[in-house]
Known about the structure:
It comes from Planococcus notacanthi. It is an enzyme of class 3 (hydrolase). GO terms for molecular function: hydrolase activity, acting on glycosyl bonds. Keywords: Glycosidase, Hydrolase. The chain is an alpha/beta fold. It has helices at 19-22, 35-42, 59-72, 84-87, 97-112, 128-132, 139-156, 170-177, 189-213, 236-259, 264-272, 283-288, 345-357, 387-405, 448-459; strands spanning 5-6, 12-16, 77-81, 116-120, 162-167, 219-225, 229-231, 294-298, 303-306, 325-326, 334-335, 340-341, 363-367, 372-373, 379-380, 383-384, 410-415, 430-431, 435-437, 444-446, 461-462. Helix 3 packs parallel to helix 5, helix 7 (139-156) runs parallel beside helix 9 and helix 8 packs antiparallel against helix 9. It is globular, with a radius of gyration of 21 Å. The model has no long low-confidence stretch (mean pLDDT 97). Bound molecules: beta-D-galactopyranose.
Amino acid sequence: MALQYKFPKGFWWGSATSATQIEGAADEGGKDRNIWDQWHENEPNRFFDGVGPASTSDFYHLYKEDIGLMKEIGHNTFRLSISWSRLIPGGRGEINPEAVAFYNNVINELIAQEIEPFVTLYHFDMPFELQEEGGWENREVVEAYAKYAGECFRLFGDRVKKWFTFNEPIVPVEGGYLYDFHYPNVVDARRAVQVAYHTMIAHAKAVGVFRAAGIEEGQIGIILNLTPSYPRSQHPADLKASDAADLFFNRSFLDPAVLGEYPEELVEMLREHGQLPHAEKGDQKLVKSGIVDILGVNYYQPRRVKAKEHLPNPYGPFMPDWYFDNYEMPGRKMNPYRGWEIYEKGIYDIMVNLRDNYGNIQSYIAENGMGVEDESRFIGNGVIQDDYRIEFIIGHLTWLHQAIEEGCNVKGYHLWSFMDNWSWMNAYKNRYGFFSVDIETKKRTPKKSAHWIKQVAEQNGFNGA
Length: 465
Ligand code: GAL
């Protein structure tokens, strides 16, 4: 029988992870500290159950078995990130040979199992020494990043063909410089804007280094969390609020990455509030040269907004939220285990927007997934019966399929994540994997969704619910 939802030939089935969230071995193999190691040491209370990044899911030691499991569930692609502070302790200077050996082993094992490695260069994990120098506020750190990127291309570019400069670059801006959920816990929009801007400058420099490296069949991209902003109503005030949220949180990175320039409206808003970043001569051209070949899209939940109910406090620090209030739509569908709305059609809306306004750039779903607390309550016959996750994936894949039917240039779907992993301040609170991980013994156990995705990947599609 023909499948109801069949995907294009060669569709990428896989999952995404990041170094800090899975590797563990934080003080092993010559790795130096990044901001997460240091922040956890300073303030363990900020992390769920006090759990830090020291050992996480121990991929550093278990990578071979893990890649075997990926193979078993039909992965043909897998995204990992390189830890900057592991490859170049301190962020600049000498390469750590143990790190090179580790990443070589991982990459070679993936390829041996016919799983194409996708590699992110930066996934929230600034080397601590460079943060001490000001992190992304400091243009010299941008230079250090470009060098680091060049080393990665040189060391691994013969085998890795899909490279991503940053994962969700807006998140360290929001977390570290506006809303206090990443180190260095600054609340200052001007500094936030500088960090965002320098991130894009760093991105463009890395793209330049990549082009110069001439990696055969190589593609360079960026991973953006494109949370669509839905207005409460069609009232002009609500529409204006959702446009502002879209400018701050989506177009601030999407426009420079895909169109090569910042939206004029965003620049105007920042100018009006005296929040424009310091730029250098030639930057505009540089940003233009950073246009990507491929875009990874992370989508978890929509953002609903409405016009502000109250005037912002003129004595408080400037915030993007001066332009909108978040809106809780009555009757919205919720993930009851994580407090996030589920809106499957969002994935379609994102893709249509990319098709119509961003030249139908080649893209893929780089992260989508469902976090659930304490999944042991769903064990039946020794297996976590995560039907809610299967349903979540089906809902999103159905809309993604629709987007493809309508001509959107989507090449694959990666779940967050392969196995349960360490989620920053939430540590191991919310579980996302196809495989559960016992954080004491590190034992991996397939959930029901692991068996299900294997079939989907092998058949390159599925039948609807
Ligand atoms: C994303 C992020 C991942 C992971 C995920 C689930 O925003 O890229 O690192 O933590 O959320 O919480």
